[in-house]
Amino acid sequence: MIVARGITVRAGGATLLAELDLEIRGGEVVALFGANGAGKSTLLAVLAGDRAPDRGRVELAGVDVRELSPRERAIRRAVLRQQSTLTAAYTAVEVVRLGRDDPAIARACLAEVELAAFADRAYPTLSGGEQQRVQLARVLAQLHGRRDAALFLDEPAAALDLRQQALIETIVSAVANRGHAVVIVAHDPRLIARCADRVIVLRRGRVLADAPPAEALAVPVVARAFDVDAAWLATRS
Amino acid sequence: MVRPGLLFQRRFDLCTRAPGIGVRIAPSRALGVLALGGALLAVVALGRGAVAIAPARVVAALAGDGSAQDLAIVWSIRLPRVILAMLVGGALATAGTTLQAIARNPLADPTLIGVSGGAALGAVASLVAGVHGAWAMPVAAFAGAQVTTLVALRLARVDHRISAVTLLLGGVGLAALTGAGYGVMLYLADDATLRSITFWSLGSLGGATWPAVVAVAIPVGLAALVLPGLARDLDRLALGELEAAHVGVDVDRVVRRAALAASLAVGAAVALCGVIGFVGLVVPYLGRLAVGPGHRALLPVAALGGAALLVAADLVARTAVAPAELPVGVVTAALGAPVLLALVRNGRGREALP
What we know:
Chain A is of the alpha/beta class. Chain A has helices spanning about 40-45, 70-75, 90-100, 105-110, 130-145, 160-175, 190-195, 215, 220-225, 230-235; strands spanning about 1-10, 15-25, 30-35, 55-60, 65, 75-80, 150-155, 180-185, 200-205, 205-210. Chain A contains ten helices and ten strands. In chain A, strand 9 (about 200-205) and strand 10 form a beta hairpin. The longest helix of chain A is centred in the middle third of the chain and has 16 residues, at about 130-145. With about 350 residues, chain B is mostly helical. Chain B has one domain (about 30-350): ABC transporter involved in vitamin B12 uptake, BtuC (Orthogonal Bundle). Helix content of chain B is about 75%, strand content about 0%. The two termini of chain B are about 30 Å apart. The interface of A and B includes residues 88, 94 and 120 of A.
């Protein structure tokens, strides 16, 4: 589904990603985990086709992601960014239709994020968590009815309360069950433990661990990923 | 549903924050009202002036009936001026709407970000260089507008975002730079050219003739052909450039074409009528209040609204202190500056800050 080979990204003399290889199958939920600056967001940008790697290539469903037009790319993958900068006075349903211009699909996707009643409210009047869910609905609308696409989520639960985090988990597994590959950048190990089939732990642009959550989130691995003392970490968790 | 405190915002901040989406007017109705209002204004404008002509006689003259004097005044003097006002007003309002979509900021008025200044410099340079022909000024003004648009956007665009601060400060810088160039041109100009520059720079529709109407209509028509196809992508740009790319917009291509259309419109308007400010700010602002931010409705509403506004402003300009004439830019500034202040007051410009 998503195949990356030899991904290397450099910026200003620093190597952000070094010779990274990975494969993510359809239906799989993979979390990217690691310290700030470990390369999670860079990797997400490269996989989503936003950023060209200095070396290596990424294939989505067998096609080099950088060779696709923006329109073709939008059919194969959807991306939810951490923070929305939308300030125009669109209604919630109009925002969702920016992802997929179909009113019925848009309303169905708003219902999926439990915002059916908010469809005709002005987006800028919604709370941060509601706005984030509208953006999630937009991303779901983009993938609606499609198979074998990829969904990239950057800290999807950061602005959400507990109940809404549970909603994210439900939606992530529903999306994976439809055959899509899901890649989540997350800081919260609990969210990862509940959502992800696999965790790729990054440290300074390299893969430190690539394993199911139970293994990848073990104290020694996490301690090394964040350069913290294992004993201290053990007392915290 | 009205939340506590929102009634206050509703009055001052309908532009984006009001749940007053409920007060949106259906685009077809807004367009109907504007078309009708514009037509009525046009009839009034055609009747007012040194020789007053009653509305019934104006309509008759338009249909080809009436005295030779009525026909001459309506067809040769006032109609070109009214049509030029419509074209220029529609062009400026549409250009403002488009630039605001690209910049994702309601403050991106062609005058404020330096685009009109670039067009003016181009126009004056063509006069001073002594390039003759009906097309020299519009083409030079278009070139000036296009260069300043691209520079303004390039300056303000950092990391897939256009910063409002940089855009407006860049506009101040560009205005200073084009102003300096303008000064150099004045210095280089001979007396006769100086006189025509002064006449032109007052920002007046006084030079309206049928050839002038045609010279504006062609570039404005080209812009009008390009923009409808971009409307939906301009909507998507509101998500942010990166997000727009995520939903399938070829951002560079859309921004390039939209900037080109805006430059065509501003260049044509400035070449024929000088710099007329604030139309590109006020009309899109009111248009968003009326029909919402979607460009399929907003672009035609802005075009008709700008046309009606400039016909009205020109009517005031040439009748308020008759027999003298105010520069029409003075009238649009008097209308527009309060809207700018309201935008700043409500932080609408600030929201797109980095």
